Amino acid sequence: xxxxxxxxxxxxxxxxxxxxxxxxxxxxxxxxxxxxxxxxxxxxxxxxxxxxxxxxxxxxxxxxxxxxxxxxxxxxxxxxxxxxxxxxxxxxxxxxxxxxxxxxxxxxxxxxxxxxxxxxxxxxxxxxxxxxxxxxxxxxxxxxxxxxxxxxxxxxxxxxxxxxxxxxxxxxxxxxxxxxxxxxxxxxxxxxxxxxxxxxxxxxxxxxxxxxxxxxxxxxxxxxxxxxxxxxxxxxxxxxxxxxxxxxxxxxxxxxxxxxxx
Length: 262
Description:
This protein has 11 helices and 2 strands. It is mainly alpha-helical. It has a domain at 78-123. Strands 1-2 form a two-stranded antiparallel sheet. The protein is globular and about 75 Å long. The chain starts with a helix and ends in a 22-residue tail after the last helix. 9% of the residues are buried.
């Protein structure tokens, strides 16, 4: 319990002058196993997250988002540009009509996740969401692993979606999807393609998010509404050309078989 309290209140059990001399440095190295065990076993307290950490920041965060913004943040996360990238390819090459089931399964998982995050927000209503909740309920180590997973998710997902913008831009300009990418032959295979358009897109979105949370939210729900309109138009156009005879053999790989009539 003493170690937990020390971890909660800060790092005052750690030597503050670890790099002041070689003796202090080696002493700090010798204490690493104890510190690591302490961090793995320690858990934060509700009081710490709700009161002490908030007081240490010395700034009250201003509420700028409403329930409307949160709804569209969720919508934007689900119907981003990625929905137009792989859905058609997977439907044609692998899933066929069973692609509907491929959406039902993650939809159920997303519903369960919503219930989890609702529990987080009700029990510990502070910034950082799941990380703060896990720190209190399961300990710092589990929260650390969860935070790493979240960061990896955003890095990989953001990079993939930004890269898809290059394909859209190339198509809009009547070019092949790789025409705006730079190939560096000195780099290893599969890592030779540099994507300046994706970098610019990420940079612009980052600047927008830093300048104003409310402005980025407005941009998000405007683009999400456009996505919904496009999806509805695709569904209507697809139903007018649908061939009911092709609704069989779920998941057996359709290859070049046409699901829709020409």
